[in-house]
Write a structure and sequence with these properties.
transcription; Beta-Lactamase; DNA-binding; alpha+beta; activator; ATP binding; rod-shaped; 5-stranded parallel β-sheet; Fis family transcriptional regulator
């Protein structure tokens, strides 16, 4: 390119024109030919060749310059990716979310620009490489990962050489095309300009030659002429500089933003104060379930109304943004295109115009569905652990009847032998027997000697719960499932996961729940009340009842299929009256227990008292015996046990009455002595050693009614 200040000077001083032109220049024909000969074509060709030489030199410089520019652009683009990746990795590294770190690394390494990524941090190192053997890299760039002013590590990106080659070709052809156009334009324009500027001096040169040949020496008073080209050169240079500057500016802007905008895994956006998208990148469209940014911007006219699940959350975000000017890590729930809900993390800042008014706000959105799912699972496990701790604390507070099973009778040994056989399995067991015989104790023995002993044993008394609460107690409920359900509750089957559930008084379970219980036992599936989500459980079921379930099935008060599913391995608890030889051992154990608790020293148990205890029918079984011994320890003034049995201690064989009649009379007597009070510390249930619900069931079975209530059982 011609530089400003260059000029073409044509001088004829000191030339020997006689030797050059000789006599033929004197002919008129030659003079006319020279005068009318057009120099424009030859001059244009000459200038074109001259500019071509300059172009060759410039072309070589362009190759070197385009190579340098391509390397600089590659380094800038790599630095932009490093900055973006470092910002995105900061939060996962701070919280050490390895899954998110791997997901981000895999996402970035799939980019055509990147061959490999290396992350070195205080919590660990990761290497990600593209599975393409043809991918090569020319150099690497390293950046620092910081979060809240603390350095967490470094990230290194290895860019591909293919992108360098593309940039090199792009710069080369850009400069080459510009150069060729300028050469053509300069050649054409300069030919015309030079024709106008040099026509007169050149013709004067011809006249001088002719004057010299003719001998007219006066024409040589002037020694030369000058043609200045500065205006043309300055105009062309200014035009070329302007074009080059604009192209470089556009290339820098495109290189700076396009790579980050299109290839980052975070959803970048610009939104007007009215809630309309100005721009969005493909990642944002993908996060929200749209096929392209254009579709997203076309479908969403108001972000506040159409995207936020809870508009109050959107209002809070805008208010916070206006107050703080920028917001980081704001959790939101947004609607996707298909109607589903997603969790996102918003980062945004306000952008102002020249007059200080809010022009728009811009930022990026991160999909944190994986993190929220993990948090929900952790919260669920935390709630379950808290519930299990509460339940276990309640279980610890319970007063167990025995520290171990006591007895040496043949019937008890046979029962324990069966327990030993079935305990190591997961078989469902049905324990039947009268109230107070120790069914729960056998259930605990089955659990603690089985493979699930390290998991909880959860007890549910089906008779102690109102019918409308049994379902919620067993299977749990969701918040708002019914009136009073202010929080979500985990059911007993979830508490007993991988453990054992003991369903006491299973005969009291309402018919409508028996089908659901059958499904849980048979398929291991259930649903919380108020939820359509099916949950699975791995639980061993042990059931107990004081009813004759075969009779209940025959009277259609108990499902036959459930009965057969429960009684895979039935165990029958013998009543205390059928194993009287175990009574002395039980009495001795109870005396030691209550003596220690009450601070007394009972050393002697009269044989007469022991005989009386062995002859009594014990309708309340072991529980009633325990109550009698506790009362005896309390009323004994010295170290000799004083026994006071109920007045109805005469055996049924001596009165000619059946056991059911004796039991009915005894319960009726106790109720009358307690003023027909069933519950409470002075109620008949405490005296009989029975659960309140069990006593009411017995009263209904034995047709015991309050006199004033007619046919209404208590």
């Amino acid at each position: 390119m011609l530089h400003t200040g260059w000029s073409l000077r044509i001088s004829i001083t000191g030339m020997d024109l006689n030797r050059v032109f000789k006599k033929k220049w004197s002919s008129e024909t030659m003079r006319n030919r020279l005068r009318h000969y057009s120099i424009s074509r030859n001059l244009t060709i000459g200038l074109f060749l001259a500019f071509g030489c300059v172009a060759g030199v410039t072309l070589y410089a362009s190759l070197r310059f385009s190579s340098h520019q391509a390397r600089v652009a590659l380094q800038k683009k790599t630095d932009e990716y490093i900055t973006s990746l470092a910002d995105i990795l900061a939060v996962p590294l701070w919280h050490f979310n390895e899954k998110v770190i791997e997901a981000i690394g895999q996402s970035y390494v799939q980019n055509d620009f990147i061959v490999a990524i290396r992350i070195e941090s205080v919590v660990g190192d990761w290497d990600f490489r593209k599975d393409d053997p043809k991918s090569q890299t020319a150099f690497l760039r390293t950046g620092t990962i910081c979060y809240q002013g603390e350095t967490l590590g470094e990230v290194t990106i290895f860019p591909t050489t293919r992108y360098y080659a593309i940039l090199n070709r792009r710069f080369f052809w850009s400069y080459t095309v510009t150069l060729v156009l300028m050469i053509v334009i300069l050649s054409l324009v300069s030919g015309g300009l030079f024709r106008q500027l040099l026509q007169k001096p050149f013709m004067q040169f011809i006249d001088l030659v002719n004057a010299y040949v003719s001998g007219d020496q006066s024409a040589f008073s002037r020694h030369g002429t000058y043609i200045e080209l500065e205006p043309l050169v300055a105009a062309l240079k200014q035009m070329g500089d302007t074009i080059s500057a604009q192209m470089r500016s556009l290339q820098r802007a495109e290189q700076k933003y396009r790579g980050i905008f299109d290839n980052t895994v975070a959803g970048i956006f610009q939104i007007t104060p009215e809630g309309k998208f100005i721009s969005a990148n493909p990642a944002l469209a993908g996060i929200l379930g749209y096929d392209s940014p254009e579709e997203l911007m076309k479908c969403i006219d108001d972000v506040q109304q159409q995207l936020y699940v809870d508009r109050r959350q959107g209002d809070e975000f805008i208010k916070l943004l206006e107050q703080e000017k920028h917001v980081e890590a704001f959790e939101v729930r947004l609607h996707r295109k298909d109607g589903s809900m997603m969790w996102g993390l918003l980062h945004a800042r306000l952008v102002y115009d020249d007059r200080g008014n809010v022009q728009h706000y811009e930022g990026f959105l991160q999909d944190i569905a994986v993190r929220k799912q993990a948090e929900m699972e952790i919260q669920h496990l935390k709630e379950q652990l808290q519930a299990e701790n509460i339940y276990l604390r309640e279980e610890i507070k319970l007063e167990h009847n025995f520290d171990e099973i006591i007895g040496q009778s043949r019937m008890l040994k046979s029962l324990l032998s069966k327990v030993e056989q079935v305990a190591p399995t997961d078989t469902t067991v049905l324990i039947s027997g009268e109230t107070g015989t120790g069914k729960e104790l056998i259930a605990r023995a089955l659990h603690h000697t089985g493979p699930r002993k390290d998991r909880p044993l959860v007890k549910v008394n089906c008779a102690a719960l109102p019918a409308h609460l049994i379902e919620s107690e067993l299977f749990g409920h969701e918040k708002g499932a019914f009136t009073g359900a202010t929080v979500r509750r985990i059911g007993r089957f979830e508490f007993a996961q991988e453990g054992t559930i003991f369903l006491d008084e299973i005969g009291e379970l309402p018919l409508e729940l028996q089908a659901r219980l059958l499904r849980v036992i048979h398929e291991g599936e259930f649903q919380r009340v108020g939820s359509s989500r099916t949950l699975t459980c791995d639980v061993r079921v042990i059931a107990a009842t004081n009813r004759n379930l075969k009779e209940e099935v025959r009277h259609r008060r108990f499902r036959q299929d459930l009965f057969y599913r429960l009684s895979v391995y039935p165990l029958a608890m013998p009543p205390l009256r059928d194993r009287a030889e175990d009574i002395p051992l039980l009495v001795q154990a109870f005396v030691q227990k209550f003596s220690k608790r009450l601070g007394k020293q009972i050393e002697t148990i009269p044989q007469t008292a022991m005989n009386a205890l062995q002859q009594y029918s014990w309708p309340g079984n072991v529980r009633e015996l325990e109550n009698v011994i506790e009362r005896a320890v309390i009323i004994s003034p010295d170290n000799t046990l004083r026994i006071e049995l109920p007045q109805e201690q005469v055996l049924a064989a001596d009165t000619g009455k059946t056991l059911q009649e004796v039991e009915r009379e005894y319960i009726l007597h106790v109720l009358q002595s307690r003023g027909w009070r069933v519950s409470g510390p002075k109620g008949a249930a405490v005296v009989l050693g029975l659960n309140e619900a069990t006593l009411r069931s017995r009263m209904q079975k034995l047709a015991i009614y309050r006199p004033k209530a007619g046919k209404s059982p208590l």
